[in-house]
Amino acid sequence: MPSNSPYGSTYFKHPSGRLSNGRLIIDFIAQAYGLPFLPAYKNLIEGQDITKGVNFAFAGATALDFNYFNKSRVALPGINNSLSVQFKMFKRLKPSLCKNKKGFDKDETFKACCGGGGPHNFDPRMGCGSPITTVCSDPSKNINWDGVHFTEAAYKLLAKGLVEGPFAYPSLKPAPFQIV
């Protein structure tokens, strides 16, 4: 996007990669939940922090590829930013998005916190609490407690999703207190 583009001028005060003068629906939702705005893939600059995600959406993008339009003899969209192109961009960027800081390793997140070794720290012959099992130092960083059950942190996220949304439709009656 050219540096003098008016897109984004109302809120961002510079070209934002959004086809609006400011924020989009997704930006308002992100703000409501205290999440950062996602930078547009086409506007990324080297060294930019993308650990929270990237927006791959494009104006005029189609779900179908150019080949479909050619074969069907339908007018081609102006540019091929189809879903498959966006998916290829995601796959190229994925290694950068999924890097973890030294030490809470995403593979560790899914291992049993309390278990008996092996690739998932789970051995059904060695239940949590037996003499040779180990317990991770911070269960809040794990989803799996003992190879069979979730951790409190995982159950909390599920409960929040049910009580506060979006896992129940229609929504449950608002709870008198927030789940913290």
From TrEMBL:
GO terms for molecular function: hydrolase activity, acting on ester bonds. Transmembrane segments: none annotated. Keywords: Glycoprotein. Belongs to the 'GDSL' lipolytic enzyme family. This is GDSL esterase/lipase. The lineage of its organism: Eukaryota, Viridiplantae, Streptophyta, Embryophyta, Tracheophyta.
